[in-house]
Structure formats: structure tokens, C-alpha cells
Amino acid sequence: MLRTELEIVTFEDLLYHYPYRYFDRTQILKIGAINPQTEFAQFAGKLINMAEEGDGRKHRLVATLFDETGRIELIWFQGINWAKKNLREGDRYIVFGKVAQFNGYYNISHPEIEPFTSEASIPGIQPVYSTTEKLRLKGVTNRSFAKITQSLFEKIKLHDIPEILPSAIITEHKLCSRYYAILWLHFPDSVQHEEMARRRMKWEELFLSQLMIGRLRLQHTIQQGWRFERVGDFFNNFFRSHLPFELTNAQKRVLREIRQDTATGRQMNRLLQGDVGSGKTIVALMSMLLALDNGFQACIMAPTEILAQQHYIGLSGLLEEMGIPMKLLTGSVKGKERKAVLAALADGSLPFVAGTHALIEDTVEFQNLGLAVIDEQHRFGVGQRARLWKKNEFPPHVLVMTATPIPRTLAMTMYGDLDVSVIDELPPGRQEIKTVHRKDVTRASVMEFIRKEVDKGRQAYIVYPLIEESEKLDYESLMAGYEQVKVWFNENKYHIAMVHGRQEAGEKARNMQRFVKGEAQVLVATTVIEVGVNVPNASVMLIESAERFGLSQMHQLRGRVGRGAEQSYCILMTGSKLNDESFKRIKIMVSTTDGFKIAEEDLAMRGPGEMYGTKQSGTLKFKLADIVADADILEETRDAAIKLLASDPGLSMHHPLRYMLGRQANQSHWGKIS
Ligand code: ADP
Ligand code: MG
Predict the structure, then answer these.
(1) pTM score over 0.85
(2) CA 307 / ligand 1 centre spacing (Å)
């Protein structure tokens, strides 16, 4: 039962099933002191007037508890027989529970109740455990949990929970021992001890994860890689004659970092972070040219078909002038065409390919893959990154590009094994996108505004939410929206395209292309266009039902405009009633275009698992630690991990740590990465 409900299998699991809060039961409140703010409270008094009342579902047992200051009613709807058997009128009891008010009287239903014989019967601080409804019905209540854990603690000795952290670290960081940490987490005898215990176990969690990341990093540094010895004609020729604009300083710096990495003979594992529109693609292309200069093939992998296609069209356009072939490989490239691409990759006649996950399938063989660029990383699992490694005798260099700005703490836990490059500068001439919040009722004027922009020769996106849970309804409102837009915009004069996930890949691509080429002025879409799509002429992003979007998602969508020199607009359309959270999100969006600020807010509001879809990955699953709230501990543990690994990279002098890491590797996907 515990196993299926809470994944508790061993005694040890029980020890690690920490309480999620505590009830302070050291104090006894006078009944007369109850006020409307009183929540959980404890009373001591005499029990009188026990009686059964009501029938059927209203059948209940009521009793009165009184002390010298007042009286309160106790009510049981369940466990009536137990109460009748165990409680006696006239006896004194300690009662604890949530105080409620009914008809002007205070009461507690299903109180925790025990005989009050002396001061010693006052329980102290009581842990509260998460249980499930099923367990509660079987009688496994919070109380019984506490009792099981308590009796477990009576049996185990100090040495049953040995220390795993080196004593130097314990001293330096003023941590309490593991035994006391776990004991105090369950049964704190004071608030101070509870805090010490909590800090110690958070420290341990974060330290172990930093050790794991540190070891991965060490592995990368010894992993042999291809040496890109020279900057050759392809790179130089492109830089001199084909580059459509001047690189920003940030782009130049990142390219230098990539050149240095790839020249060492070790495998590059670099994360390229840059806000939407910062110009990552050109960096990718020039890195690919560098690979080609050194006789290697290169691929660029995107999370969606549309993005892969866009890279293919954009890059092959630039490459054409230089006579460098590039092909597309996605799920919808089939038959003869696919065969040809596969053959050309295998015999080396095709230097560059853009694609989706299709690229990492086993059937795809490269003659000599030297660089893999992964765009919009957070959609690829870490495991998929690892699959790329097997595509050559040594793993290719890996450049991971992400447009979602990653707050520092998250980067330390998610990508701590990668070197990080940042493009912190937008190409010149960009104007800040104007963001406004509009309510449904003003739709007419919003549409009028968009039409004016379109008449100036601009293009507009209109995006509808789509989530799995309400997919059918969402599609219906997308279709309704499309019909409406066609009415707003005279169909003879304007062209409206629509893309969504239910369209077949070819149709989706055709519609998208109509917008990319400027044949359609308005694109009605779901969030399939969220990342990467690049149409510099688009100047309006209208987000419908914006209250349903997350912060990072809205920021990504907004990043689709403001890519050219024109003033661009982002309109967040909502209903007239907004809950506090949605309102806060909209407010943040209106007040800033700084992707890092938005990512920080998003992380604080939603937590890392939600935000990056890494919930299942196991890499961010901490029992106690929170990488936002505990950023200070995270920094400490990172430094400590680096220091420890510097003196003992194999952890051969720290067996307990090695053992713990090994165990975690089995439990999560970590093992697969290394
Ligand atoms: P992202 O980082 O979001 O992937 P892109 O690589 O798609 O951004 O670039 C956004 C737009 O900016 C593209 O139209 C690209 O051609 C343009 N761009 C990139 N670098 C520069 C630059 N240094 N100067 C001017 N325009 C640039
Ligand atoms: Mg991009």
C-alpha cells in the first residue's frame, strides 16, 4: 500500500519521506482566546455532553470541551465507534485540530485527541506527512505515519545513518550530522534544529547533484575530440564576401570561443545562450563552415519540422552562392529523396544537413561528422544529446543553442556540464517591441490597428493557445478565430494563412511558406510557431487568450516580431476577468522585454520542472532544495564540489559519496548521459 501510494518500499524510504510541515503543539491555547484568525490550535479541558445526532450522511457524534475560559464543540462524522469506546465524559483531554466557525460557535471536526494526565502529555512539535486519500481511508493517517517513523527511530542508532560528507566540509559549512539532520527533520525539538536539519539535507542534495555535474564535466574535458586546426577558405570567403551584415561584438566573441574549443583536440560541449533575435543562426552557420574547412560534415538539429525547414531554407540560401550543398532530413522526407540524402551523408558527398530528431535515428550514418548544432535545446532530452556522440569514431563537437534565457541557478544544475557562451547584444537598429494589454471588448480597435500595419506593408501573427487537456475546444476556438479574422480582413484584399499541429506536414509547411514569402499578410496559428521562426517583416504579434500562456512562452512568441528595423508591437488579448497570477504575468510582459528578467520571474512563479519540461528527467528532482530559493546553498555546493573533485576526481577517497552518486544514477537518467 505504501509502495503503490507513496513509493515507500524500505525503512530507508520511510526515513526520506520527510514531513512537509509541522504543527507546533508545544502551546496550549485558552478556548476563550480563539478569534476568527485562529487556524490549527491545541486546547486542554474537560469533555462533556457526548451525543449522537442526525441521520444518514448527517449522522455525527458531538461533544463539548471546556476550560475555565470557554467551550468548543468537537464533531465526528467518521470513527464514531472508536470515539464512543475510547473517550469518557468527565475526563480531561488534549485536543488539536483546525478551528472552524458554525452558527457563531467554534468547533473542531475530527480533532486529534488524547488523555491529558500531566504536562508530559503535551506532544511538542508534530510532523505532518503527505499521505493519500486511499491511505487515510485505510487508517494510515498522518499520526500513524509519525508513529511508524518514531518507532523506527527508537530502533536505529547513530551508526545506522552514517555520515557521507567529508568532515572538512561539515566543519567548513557548519552542517549538522546526517543522523541528526534526518532525526530533526522528522522530530525537531526546536525551530533552530529543524532549520539546521533542513539546511543540511538541502546542502547534501545540491552537493550530490553538483558532484555529478562536475564529474560529467571532467569527462568532457578528457573526451578526445576532433581537432579543427585551421580557419580555411569556406569560413573566410563567407566572412568577407557573403555575410549579409556586420557581426555584433557578441557574435564575434562567441565565434572566437568556438574556434578555441574546437582547436584543442578535446570535444566541445558548449551552450550558446542568446535572447530571441540575437542572431544565433549565423554563429551556427559559421561554425559549420569551420567544420567544413577541416574536412568534416556538420548538422543542425531543430525540435520541429517547421524550424528545421526554416533553417534549411535560410542556410541553404546563403550557401548556394558559395556552391555548398545542404539538404533537409525530417520525418516527411521520404522515399527516393530520403535514400539520396542518407547515401550522400554516408559517402561524405553532402557536407551539411538540417533536420529534426530524424537525424539521430540509427539509420542515419555520416561519413565524418565533426559538429552537431542543436537549436532550442530544451526540447531535446539529455539522452538525445548523448545519441549524437555515437555518430562518429569520436563524438562530434556539440553546440547547443537556446533562446530561452536560462537563469544562472538553473544553468548550473541543468547545463552545469557545458561551457556557456552568451550573446548579450542585439543586432543594431532594433527598436524595443511595444507591448500592451487589451481586453476582448476592444477587439474592433485592435483589428483596425493591425489592418493599418498591414496596409503599411507589414505582416502580423495571431496566436491561439493550444493545450492537450482542452485540445478539442482549443481547435474549435482557433477555427472560429480564423473565420473571424477573415471577416475582419477583406478576403479579396488580404491573404490569411493558418498553421496548426493537426495539419499534415506538407500543408503546414506550404502555409508557413506563404507567410514567410510575404504572400499572406496575416498568419493565424497555434504555438507551433513559438520558437525560431524568422520573418523580419512581421511587426505585430497578437496573442489571444494571453492569460493562458506562461511567461516564457509569451516572451518566445513576442520574439517573433521586432526582427527587422520597423517598430513592432505585441498585443496581449485577454478576457475581462483575470486571476492574480495571470494578471501578474501580463504585467511583467508589459513592463519588460528583458528575457533574463522574464525567465527569472517564470522560474520563481512556476518552478524549474514545469518551466523546462524536465520534470521526468530526474535531473532537477530535489526533495527539499529549491534552486531559486536556495541559490546561496547552490553556489556553496558548487564551489565545494569543484574543490573536492580537483583533489579527488575519481572520488576514490570518498566512497560514501561515490556510492550515493551511483545509486542516484540508477534512479534517474544521469547514468545514460555519461
Ligand atoms: P535567434 O538568435 O533568435 O535564432 P536569428 O539567428 O534568427 O536569431 O536572427 C534574427 C534576425 O537577425 C535574422 O533576421 C538575422 O538575419 C538577423 N541578424 C543576425 N545577426 C545580425 C547582425 N549582426 N546584424 C544584423 N542583423 C542580424
Ligand atoms: Mg533561432
Answers:
(1) no
(2) 15
